[in-house]
Amino acid sequence: MSTINLTCPRNYGEMSEKQIRYVAALQHAGMSEIAIWTKCFVRFTGIKAIGGTSERYYFMKKHLKGFFSLSIEETCSFAKKLDFLTKKYVGIQPMSRIRMYRPCDKLLRDTVMLQYLDAENYYQAFLFTKEPDHLHKLMATLYQLPGKKYSNDLSKWHIKRMARRSEVEKLIVVMWMIGIKEAFKKQWPYLFHSTNADDEFDQGTAPDMHTIIQNQIRMLTGGDITKRSDVLSSSTWAALDELNTKARESMEIEQQMKNN
Which residue spans within 40-184 are E strands per DSSP? Predict the structure, then answer.
């Protein structure tokens, strides 16, 4: 019996922009999870369905003579290995460009704290209100002109260009942001332990992003307003490292007080 090798991405980090667009298109079309997994299994492995019965599917593959079959159970089992497509967005690569604009690093490593806070603010606002304008501003925050210093003074033309993008492209930006949030929870577990804004959103209550952001800035400045500008222009990852350390120390103190 000959062996047929079928290969698929194991996570979003191994996927091309074309593959990510395909997943987003399926999601935008409202397909069920199992339908998305199955269609992607077929497409990504390079096989082509040519028919089937109530028990088996029959496929062809490029450079393979004849055809082969998989039982319904086998097909579903293989497809389920792609469940990360609708569950785990860590590592997703952003679209390489939107017109003349380029994305920041996929995990915001090259951003300043102000840019991260703006992105977080627009993301949470969009999740709660579903107002497209918040999503367009999120896109304008994450996609900037190359070589330019970040400014949150977003021009109306910048936002309008984002608004004209397809719904699939807009969905990819949301998927990217979800992946960033997932990665940050692993990178800074003490800071995102309570998943501040996300928990509030899950409860159906609009997160008070102004208070959350001001508290984070206050923690970094130690209450010294003269340091605010330096904090906002500092590296996002360096600032989140410091916030995570402060959150850990706060939890340790709280635990000690409970034990005394």
Answer: 47-52, 56-61, 68-71, 102-103, 143-144
Number of other residues whose CB lies within 10 A of the CB of residue 192? 20
- Extract the tokens encoding 28: 């935008």
Strand partners, 58: 51, 69
In CATH, the number for domain 12-86 is: 3.30.920
* Domain-wise residue ranges, the chain: 12-86, 102-257
Mean pLDDT across the stretch 151-164? 93
- List CB contacts of 73: < 8 A, sequence separation 6 or more: none
Contacts of 10 (CB under 8 A, 6+ apart): 84
What count of other Cβ atoms lies within 10 Å of the Cβ of residue 85? 27
By C-alpha distance, which of 146, 143, 164, 165 is closest to 154? 143
Percent helix, strand and coil across the chain, each to the nearest 5 = 60, 10, 35
Residue 220: is its pLDDT beyond 70? yes
Q: Is the separation of the CB atoms in 59 and 69 below 8 Å?
A: yes
What is this structure's pTM?
Answer: 0.87
Report how far residue 246's alpha carbon sits from residue 244's, in angstroms, rounded to the nearest whole number.
5
pLDDT in tens, 83-138: 999 999 999 999 999 999 999 999 999 999 999 999 999 999 999 999 999 999 99
In sign, the C-alpha dihedral spanning 198, 199, 204, 208 is: negative
Judged by DSSP in three states, 191 sits in: coil
